[in-house]
Amino acid sequence: MPPKIVFFDIDDTLFRKWQDFMPESVLPAFRALHEAGVLTAIATGRSPCALPAKIRALIDAVGLDILVSTNGQYNRYRGETVAAHPIDPADIAEVVRVCRAHDWDYGCTSEEKMALSSDRQRVHDSLYGTVPYETDPDYWQRHPVYQMNVFITAEEEAAFAASGILQRGYQMIRWHPLGMDLLHADGSKARGIRAVCAALGIDLADTMAFGDELNDLEMFKTVGFGVAMGDGRDELKALAKYVTTPLEQHGVYNALVHLGIIPGPTWNNA
């Protein structure tokens, strides 16, 4: 039986952010899934406000059924919010205090905007210039925030941990040598996937996911079938039920064909 939903990570699964590249086979893959009656979903650490232009164009062209965003903190089904988990403003205030005491930059992300404390070089270097943001250090005082960013090195992590923030029920996930996400300890793509499937009455065994990174580990432990990208993390490949080729080699499209989810033939670069 084919899956009822396929969840796709964005970065390095559908899209290479430092090259602004999405394979031409991605749009036909989504169209073929729709024609097969399979719901399409994106599961990403990005907020809806930070989706790359090429991903937005994909969504406009073919439609998207489900968006699990901000590592499961903000989730939609066909445009309607299914589940949302904002960070307590009192905890945000403490993070801000610690960051200002150490002269660290921080960011606050809602579904509408990513607002950073400054636009210093460390911020530019970590975001690759591909994620839109505004400089607004007090944004969190006026809007719900689903995830924070702290722009610190690995050497600075110990000082941040010593502040006691994580003991309030939070976790940090590094995505760049200069940047980390801060979110609820139980926040993950898996949390959003469980919420969406519960709302739709779909068994988790009837789901599939594509991913490549460490923040996809919980997702692979939750869905019925995990597909790892060929250049993904070894830890994720160990959990996967199938390992496909990198995105430049049309790994998503060809895996769907190989697994019998969409009709062939396979896609090649010729």
From TrEMBL:
<dbReference type="Pfam" id="PF08282">
    <property type="entry name" value="Hydrolase_3"/>
</dbReference>
<dbReference type="InterPro" id="IPR023214">
    <property type="entry name" value="HAD_sf"/>
</dbReference>
<dbReference type="GO" id="GO:0000287">
    <property type="term" value="F:magnesium ion binding"/>
</dbReference>
<keyword id="KW-0378">Hydrolase</keyword>
<dbReference type="InterPro" id="IPR036412">
    <property type="entry name" value="HAD-like_sf"/>
</dbReference>
<dbReference type="InterPro" id="IPR000150">
    <property type="entry name" value="Cof"/>
</dbReference>
<dbReference type="GO" id="GO:0016791">
    <property type="term" value="F:phosphatase activity"/>
</dbReference>
<dbReference type="GO" id="GO:0005829">
    <property type="term" value="C:cytosol"/>
</dbReference>
<protein>
    <submittedName>
        <fullName>Cof-like hydrolase</fullName>
    </submittedName>
</protein>
<dbReference type="InterPro" id="IPR006379">
    <property type="entry name" value="HAD-SF_hydro_IIB"/>
</dbReference>
